[in-house]
Design goal:
The complex is a heterodimer of chains A (about 575) and B (about 240).
Chain A (H helix, E strand, L loop, with lengths): L34 H6 L13 H17 L7 H5 L6 H13 L16 H16 L42 H7 L12 H14 L20 E5 L6 E3 H6 L10 E5 L9 H14 L3 H8 L4 H10 L3 H10 L4 H7 L5 H15 L1 H16 L4 H11 L3 H12 L1 H18 L1 H9 L4 H5 L4 H23 L7 H91 L4 H14 L1
Antiparallel strand pairs in A: 1-2, 1-3
Helix pairs in contact in A: 2-4, 9-10, 9-14, 10-11, 12-16, 14-15, 15-16, 16-21, 17-18, 17-22, 18-19, 18-22
Chain B lengths: L1 H5 L18 E9 L2 E9 L6 H14 L4 H20 L10 E10 L2 E10 L7 H12 L6 H33 L4 H8 L6 H4 L9 H4 L5 E4 L2 H14 L1
Antiparallel strand pairs in B: 1-2, 3-4, 4-5
Helix pairs in contact in B: 2-3, 4-5, 5-6
The chains are: A mainly alpha (about 575), B alpha+beta (about 240).
């Protein structure tokens, strides 16, 4: 199995000889007859003839293989073999072709007699295969009677490089294994958006671009914001023309060729939190009237708005997060260089309140939570559940079902997986000390949920400080947290499912045991009945033999009487004949 | 299952057939009209319709550019050989173990072949054509006519043995009717030409004694033109 160079010693020889046989024939053993042989050469094993027995098969086989191994370089032919073996040539031929097909003979021999014959071609083909595929495992095409041999010595199946070590303590909790197999590729789900890719892009852009945060690209000619794209003058850094002005030829004394077009669509679509909020709010207000939405957002074009909305993980979650963050809207809005967003954001609160009852309800909850503050544990849980919609609720419920340690492990795995998934997220986790999420989950569930709230609460001031430098960062932990909790939730669910499955299995085992026991009892009873029958039979047998003895004795008596009476011989003859008849 | 049924059971008697995988009748033609001689040997599937015989004859004559008189002769010859074969069909053949020695001694064009081997009559999977192919390949025979000739020679011998065993089976049945407990005698009688494999396995091994190797070793000779002519002349004389 493990090695393609299967080493065998010929029993006749004192020293070990190494022979090469194909890996698919590694079942071969001198001392044994394998199942494949039994099935392929059935006639030796069905006891149909005394000239075809397993012993004779083994002798045929061993002789042919030994004969071949006398000189490996030569192709052994059937005609060479049959003169030395006693037996039906058809049967011998069958054995021979069987051995040849499995490469036990004529395997390594060079095809010096490379004639056009079919078997030779087969051998060559096999050889080629071997050379080409470097001992690759083949499921023998000719495997008789559906025998499939799958030996896996050095499987050529492209082994995906093992993923970086994951702290996976619990088997089957996270989807880590699956991810590793797929090479961390996610299917293009409608609800999935590559948040990290965007984040990376944004970070890179931030690193490359001006450190003073997001500012509008203003046309150097008409002083209007350039939405979809602009031309940058290479020689002077900050001189920019919008498409319209460029088209009109308003670049003054500068050369046309010194302008570089920068597509706003692809490169500079960076959404600030405020803009995103504005967008969502506008969508709420105007529905899919994108013209109006774009007008409301002001800083982004219609297309940008649509694509951003499509990229968002999902609407309600985003909305929830927006509501959850409403507390520090004001601070952010003040700090934000984008002055237009502020009144809009304020409007948004009212709009939400007006828009639907559900939202109003949420909003009130939110405000309640704000009023009461984080210290009251019981009540704290409500807003956090609301803030992140039903997700946290589900996590809590599920983690309650499976128990804290499993949830802890699930959370661990989830965070680890997220870290592994993307360098960016790992950085974020590290930066924000997000690792503590894995720490807290070991504790009591309720407490745990509260700590999510409290840890968020702790972070809020810190975040608002961070706000000045990197306004985007606020979004990141939240979305990541969402994902982490989603993963945790899934992990917990999986754990729960496994528990259920285990239980099912135990039950099935139990039932099976009962069934087996019952069957056993049945069999025992049958055995008992049979024993009784046997006793009866034995008794009857004894009786019969007694009868027989009696009858023989009687017969002897009769015969003696006949002899003594001197009755003629013909009677005697018939009795003898009947006697032989009995014997036959 | 499949393999099992392919082997004739030693218990039940077998209806007459050529004891190979394909029930093909060996046909040998040797026709001489007006000094022109036509000799050929081939196999015929007895389940083919007899109308094919005439078609075949016409075709052969046309292909070989023989005089038209050959058509009826060929057709008649084939037909009579088929009729003979069919007369045995439905009759019981031998019972029990039957391994017979097959001896080859034939000349095809320039190739002379001598060989001897055992053939199991109970093996209805055996394939003389396959055997002949392997033989030619192993012995490096290039002449494409040799293989079919070997196969036909085997088939003819098997056919002969099958006919004999039909006769002996009939005989043993007749004897059986007359007297009881006679089986063992007839069995040994019908087994006259059959080989007792168990005995020839020797004491402990299926491997032949060295001195017997020559007997069972195929001999292939390539004759020169003169030798062929001489042989043909001798055959003429003998005939």
């Amino acid at each position: 199995m493990e090695a393609s160079n299967f080493k065998q010693s010929v029993p006749e020889e004192p020293h070990l000889d190494l022979y090469t046989i194909p890996s698919y024939s590694s079942w071969f053993q001198w001392g044994n007859i394998h199942e494949i042989e039994r099935i392929s050469l059935r006639e030796f094993f069905d006891g149909s003839s005394i000239t075809r027995t397993p012993r004779i098969y083994k002798e045929y086989r061993d002789f042919i293989i030994c004969k071949y191994r006398e000189d490996l370089s030569r192709r052994l032919t059937f005609t060479d073999v049959r003169k030395s073996l006693v037996g039906d040539v058809s049967t011998l031929h069958k054995v021979f072709t069987f051995l040849e097909k499995w490469g036990l003979i004529n395997f390594s021999g060079t095809a010096s007699s490379s004639s056009s014959s079919s078997t030779n071609a087969l051998v060559q083909e096999k050889k080629k295969e071997v050379e080409d595929e470097k001992w690759r495992v083949r499921v023998e095409e000719g495997a008789p009677y559906g025998v499939r041999v799958v030996v896996a010595p050095n499987s050529l199946k492209t082994v995906t490089p093992p993923p970086p070590p994951l702290p996976l303590g619990v088997v089957g909790v996270s989807g880590g294994g699956e991810v590793a197999e797929n090479g961390s590729k996610f299917p293009p789900l409608a609800s999935y958006s590559d948040i990290y890719g965007e984040l990376l892009l944004q970070q890179q852009q931030q690193a490359h671009q001006q450190p003073q945060g997001k500012e509008l690209v203003l046309c150097g000619s008409c002083k209007e914001p350039c939405d979809s794209g602009h031309y940058e003058y290479i020689k002077e850094e900050r001189f920019i023309l919008c498409k319209k002005c460029f088209g009109n030829g308003d670049y003054g004394c500068k050369s046309v060729h010194d302008f570089k077009f920068i597509d706003g669509m692809n490169h500079i679509v960076v959404w600030t939190e405020a803009e995103t909020l504005l967008l969502l709010e506008s969508v709420l207000k105007h529905g899919d009237d994108w013209e109006l939405v774009a007008q409301n957002v002001k800083t982004k074009s219609k297309l940008d708005c649509i694509s951003k909305l499509l990229q968002l993980p999902f609407g309600d979650l985003m909305l929830g997060s927006a509501l959850g963050k409403s507390k520090f809207w004001d601070t952010r809005a003040d700090i934000s260089s984008d002055g237009q967003a502020v009144p809009a954001a304020r409007e948004f609160r009212d709009a939400v309140a007006r828009d639907s009852q559900q939202h109003e309800h949420k909003h009130e909850d939110q405000q309640n939570a704000e009023d009461r503050g984080p210290p009251q544990k019981r009540l704290c849980t409500v807003p956090i559940l609301d803030a992140s919609s039903s997700l946290m609720k589900q996590v809590a419920r599920l983690s309650a079902v499976v128990g804290p340690p499993i949830t802890a492990c699930a959370a661990d795995a989830a965070v680890a997986e997220l870290c592994y998934e993307n360098r960016c997220s790992r950085e974020i986790f590290d930066d924000d000390n997000f690792g503590d999420e894995s720490g807290y989950s070991a504790q009591n569930n309720e407490e745990r949920v509260c700590r999510v709230e409290s840890s968020e609460g702790e972070k809020r001031p810190a975040m608002s400080e961070l706000q000045e430098t990197t306004p985007q960062k606020n979004v990141v932990p939240l979305t990541l947290r969402m994902r982490a909790s989603t993963a945790t939730c899934l992990g917990a669910a999986a754990a729960h499912a496994k528990l259920l499955a285990d239980q099912e299995e135990r039950e099935i085992e139990h039932l099976l045991a009962i069934v087996v026991e019952t069957q056993l009892k049945k069999l025992q009873r049958k055995a008992k009945v049979l024993e009784n029958l046997e006793v009866i039979m034995e008794k009857q047998h004894d009786q019969f033999s007694e009868f027989e003895e009696d009858i023989v004795a009687e017969r002897m008596n009769v015969l003696q009487e006949i002899f003594s009476a001197g009755i003629p011989r013909w009677n005697d003859h018939t009795s003898v004949k009947s006697h032989t008849g009995n014997a036959l | 299952m499949k393999a099992h049924s392919a082997w004739g059971s030693s218990k039940n008697s077998i209806k007459f057939r050529i004891p190979t995988s394909d029930n093909l009748v060996p046909i040998r033609l040797d026709i001489e009209i007006d000094g022109q001689r036509f000799r050929d040997a081939f196999t015929w599937n007895p389940s083919d319709p007899d109308s094919e015989v005439v078609v075949f004859a016409k075709r052969t004559v046309k292909d070989l550019k023989l005089p038209p008189a050959f058509v009826t002769q060929i057709a008649q010859s084939i037909q009579s050989q088929l009729t003979e074969f069919r007369s045995y069909e439905g009759q019981d053949m031998y019972t029990g173990e039957r391994v017979v020695p097959i001896k080859l001694d034939l000349r095809v064009n320039h190739t002379l072949i001598k060989d001897q081997f055992y053939w199991d009559l109970n093996n209805f999977e055996s394939d003389p054509e396959e055997f002949a192919r392997t033989f030619c390949k192993d012995m490096g025979i290039d002449d494409p006519e040799v293989g079919p000739a070997i196969a036909i020679a085997i088939r003819e011998q098997l056919y002969e043995i099958a006919i004999q065993s039909v006769a002996s089976a009939k005989e043993s049945r007749m004897i059986k009717k007359g007297r009881k407990g006679f089986e063992h005698i007839t069995a040994s009688k019908t087994g006259g030409i059959a080989v007792d494999l168990v005995k020839s396995f020797g004491k402990s091994s299926v491997i032949r004694k060295r001195k017997e190797w020559d007997v069972f070793e195929p001999m292939v000779d390539l004759l020169s033109n003169e030798e062929v002519d001489a042989l043909e002349a001798r055959e003429e004389r003998n005939a």
